[in-house]
Amino acid sequence: MRGRIGFRVMLAVAIALALGLGAGSYLAMRHMEHQVLEEVHEGGHRLSDLLVRSLRHAMLRNDRESIGAAVRDLATGEDLSSFRIFNKDGVVAFSSDPSEAGRTVPTTDDACRGCHAGRRPLDTLAREDRATTYRDAQGHRLFTLVEPLYNAPDCSSAPCHVHPPSQKVLGVVDLTLSLRRMETAMGRFREGVLIGALVLMAGLSAVVVLLLMALVTRPVRRLVRGIHQVTAGDLDARVADLGDTELGEVARAFNEMTARLKETRGRLLQTERLGVVGRLAAGIAHEINNPLTGVMLIAGNLKEGLDPKDPRRGDLETLYREAARAREIVKGLLDFARQVRPNWSRATLDLPLGQAVEMVRHIAQKQGVDLTVEGPPLPEMRLDVPRMQQVLVNLMVNALDAMPDGGRLQVHKGVSGDGRSVWVDVADTGSGIRSEDLAHLFEPFFTTKEGKGTGLGLSISWGIVRDHGGQIDVESEPGRGTTFRVFLPLQAQGVDGAIDR
Description:
Largest sheet: 5 strands, antiparallel
Strand order of the largest sheet: 2-1-5-4-3
CATH class of the domain at 343-501: Alpha Beta
Radius of gyration: 54 Å
CATH architecture of the domain at 343-501: 2-Layer Sandwich
Strand content: 15-25%
Number of helices: 11
Structural class: alpha+beta
Order of helices and strands: HHEEHEEHEHHHEHEEHEEHHEE
Distance between the termini: 53 Å
CATH topology of the domain at 343-501: Heat Shock Protein 90
Low-confidence stretches: 493-501
CATH superfamily of the domain at 343-501: Histidine kinase-like ATPase, C-terminal domain
């Protein structure tokens, strides 16, 4: 399982989702906490201002008992941890904790840290510098805010006060809020974000898994199954259309490759089969060629020694004629078996093609066949001109034999799109060839002409084209005609091992 591409992709997606959602969740929680702290700061400033305003009247009357009672009552709330008022000398005047009254607040106290750490007067501190957040000995989070009590005109002019108008700050208000509820809410928020992230990751992972299965895993399995079928020898295996994706292109390329492999295997089997037949034919031809020559010589001598009116001369003429015919068949077998060494020369295929057309043109005219040749001039290449002429004449004669009552014989020629080979098509509108006969066309002695021909013409043509490094393809449909196409590479290796360059 670990070696499969689907598992690796899913693992990579899961890691990416975990990292992305984890980073997003962390940033969201940090932002949320920052926003909550800002709200706490704003709320602390508003609460401090409200508390000072509520005690203002009692302060103007210097009603210390009322101020002290109010301060103690204000600190009974759940969120307000402590509330203190101390003078400019740091002595606690009023506190929600009565035991702190009259004590001097040390400069290391959280309420004094902003001024004394920066050695700046309280009234010169920025608003955000007057607040601080810290944890107490029990680990609970607290928010402390200090605000100066300014000497207002109505305060300095009150008969009970002795503060001159030049004194700017009379004291300090120290407000401490508990952040327990905020921490509880933030904990629930973190849990919710974490659960939401996990649910989202699970949902996205499920969607990604389904998409991967539909778009990658299943198509890849089909490709692998097709490859296994081809490996097992089934060249009819095909992969279903996988759409207009990269995998679809791979599937189409695979199907095309398989089709070409099947075609190539058929050609190799044909080549091997014909090679075996050719070697067998060469052996037989060598064995019977000399006896046939002897038979022809003896028959000729006997015929010459008989009286012209002797009835045995006819038998000897028949014997000589049939022996000559047998020797022609042997010659064809030797040609098929490549016993004739090619005579290479530099020429264009137009030369043997033109000669072949001239040889069959009168036959085409007699049968009422319209013979046409189309195509551009072909480049020079290495050719055995007489033997290639033999191939083209054989293909044209076969086409004419398929059209005894007239038709069209079209010869097309050209250069392949990649410029590596030339081709010639010989197409007729004759009777066509049955599909079951197509696989046997190039086998020796196989013929579709009943009582006509030896069945060696196409076999010999196939061997000649093979000597040129080319191939012959055929397409036919009964009643619609036949097309033979000859491919010849411009750089071909022949039987003598020489390479045309």
